[in-house]
Amino acid sequence: GAGVSQSPSNKVTEKGKDVELRCDPISGHTALYWYRQSLGQGLEFLIYFQGNSAPDKSGLPSDRFSAERTGGSVSTLTIQRTQQEDSAVYLCASSGGQGRQPQHFGDGTRLSIL
Amino acid sequence: GENVEQHPSTLSVQEGDSAVIKCTYSDSASNYFPWYKQELGKRPQLIIDIRSNVGEKKDQRIAVTLNKTAKHFSLHITETQPEDSAVYFCAEGGSNYKLTFGKGTLLTVNP
């Protein structure tokens, strides 16, 4: 595709529910990143996938957060038992190399927990 | 760990003036420094980046300077226009693949 695609663009759910956020990276990009952006804040690193290597999960804030990347392309970020503090914009980015190439972002998913 | 300080947090200039945003970092292994522009409700977009083997890079009205000794780098926007209004983020990447972002600068260009 032309750019990084994320879905849904907006998600409103009740506290305690599970949510899945999807990211389609730029075709051919081997590196994929998830970030969280709270209102008026910078970007907080969550997780990184590179090719077939084990992902770097060091930024995940709790064990309620997990992510997968199937077939080296599409990624899903799952948040279980959502809490109000999970409300944020979740951004996905991809890059073409070993992370040394520029990261290109999607439009994000705005998650609101009621 | 890595830490990036970005200043100012808000900046208001008159159209046609220059704007300068500064970032400092702590990791001496950092060697990649991108700048992103994020308009309200939009995705962050890369506007310029610099690697540690150069001290300055320009692209039309935008320039970035890097001082590795002092561990700081700056974004310079000349002849500002209202469409330059946005939040700007600096970031640094070191020996690994991660980028650490500053907290952003809200730039307002007044017509």
SSE topology:
The complex is a heterodimer of chains A (114) and B (111).
Chain A: E1 5-7, E2 10-13, E3 19-24, E4 31-37, E5 43-50, E6 65-69, E7 75-79, E8 88-95, E9 104-105, E10 109-113
Parallel strand pairs in A: 2-10
Antiparallel strand pairs in A: 1-3, 3-7, 4-5, 4-8, 6-7, 8-9, 8-10
Chain B: E1 4-7, E2 10-14, E3 19-25, E4 32-38, E5 45-51, E6 56-59, E7 62-67, E8 72-77, E9 86-93, E10 99-101, E11 105-110
Parallel strand pairs in B: 2-11
Antiparallel strand pairs in B: 1-3, 3-8, 4-5, 4-9, 6-7, 7-8, 9-10, 9-11
Note down, in words, how this protein is organized.
The complex is a heterodimer of chains A (114) and B (111). Chain A has strands at 5-7, 10-13, 19-24, 31-37, 43-50, 65-69, 75-79, 88-95, 104-105, 109-113. With 114 residues, chain A is an all-beta fold. In chain A, the strands form 2 sheets. In chain A, strands 2, 4, 5, 8, 9 and 10 form a 6-stranded mixed β-sheet that branches. By secondary structure, chain B is mainly beta. Chain B contains no helices and 11 strands. Chain B has strands at 4-7, 10-14, 19-25, 32-38, 45-51, 56-59, 62-67, 72-77, 86-93, 99-101, 105-110. In chain B, strands 2, 4, 5, 9, 10 and 11 form a 6-stranded mixed β-sheet that branches. In chain B, strands 1-3-8-7-6 form a 5-stranded antiparallel β-sheet, with no helix packed on it. The mean pLDDT of chain B is 92. At the A-B interface, strand 5 and strand 9 of A face strand 4, strand 5, strand 9 and strand 10 of B.
